[in-house]
Design goal:
homotrimer; 5-stranded antiparallel beta sheet; 3-stranded antiparallel beta sheet; 4 helices; 8 strands
Chain lengths: 138, 138, 138
């Protein structure tokens, strides 16, 4: 059995990390499925889906580490080619990946108490993101 | 068809990388499924699942790179808020992700000879981790 | 319903990032499935699958960031143990992961216009890579 939900998420730009756990939980509940997997994917190459404890400190710390890895104001070949300013966004998104797949059991996603599913915006401007929530199971 | 196994993994804390390939292989075999995908997920926001050649050198090298990215004794906003000392754990886990999904064929996970499925512990203290192994297929 | 395609991808070594979106799209089309998920996985512990805008600038920028994280000519314990020179490959592959799972809808993978599915080669020599494309859905 296959079920799908979609949601749109407005972000303020790089460093905005949005908790979408409630949307995913609602999608799983609506599907009527008991046991299976849910794939949560963001469309586009400058944002990612992952899990984190969604509190402002941990979110800021993630941003600090990613700034070390791919500084926003660094030199990027992507900028030279396209006149863009979001080379850091592409690099961060490629490393974190566009999706996460998690099991659900008895209609509930198998997450820890302090673990949220998040959309991490890496683009340098506000975006409206399309998220696909696809469930497979019984 | 949906099948599930669970296992508990005791870890010694940050840097402990446990090979759980045998547990996953056994789960796939027990399921009786021939062809499908297996999602291996750790519950919680301070550990990850990935694949690596599970030998002490490569495991230590991964730790060295992650220490560069998110130093254990660095300054973390998460620490200030909660009095915790595991900001580096949250950052590392968010970047590597909580799960891996792999195909299996003829009842065997499609892995290379030197490629193991591992639980990477990032928390700063020993933990007992719950791992969910969920299979879908024919 | 389960469907599978496989493809071989020849790479030139570390930093070669190959666009395999067309192969994945063809696999989904051939499966006859309309809605589901596709898992794309590379066999082996020194390459990864992710998505990126596949243009030479962004690909070079990803390489630059990964060189910062795990320098090719750095010191690796993996080298001391095995006489290998690909410690950086193992570290990069473990961080990016061996697979990506994405939804497809009406027979098309849910990707952005500028988002391609890629095999990122991290090994220090040319390789011929086996990629498994596994689809589940209706």
């Amino acid at each position: 059995m296959v079920a799908t939900s979609r949601c749109e998420v407005r972000t303020t730009g790089q460093g905005d990390v949005r908790d979408i756990s409630a949307e995913v939980a609602a999608a799983v509940a609506r599907s009527g499925l008991s046991s299976g997997v849910v794939t949560v994917a963001v469309v586009g190459s400058t944002a990612s889906i992952t899990t984190i404890e969604h509190e402002p400190g941990a979110v800021a710390d993630l941003g600090t580490a990613l700034e070390r890895l791919a500084p926003r104001d660094g030199k990027y070949r992507h900028h030279e080619r396209w006149g863009d300013d979001n080379g850091s966004s592409h690099v961060r998104a490629a490393i974190l990946g566009p999706s996460v797949t998690l099991p659900f059991t008895d209609g509930q996603v198998d997450l820890g108490t302090w673990q949220q599913i998040v959309l991490a915006e890496f683009d340098t401007r506000p975006r409206t993101r399309s998220v696909v929530v696809r469930m497979l199971g019984d």
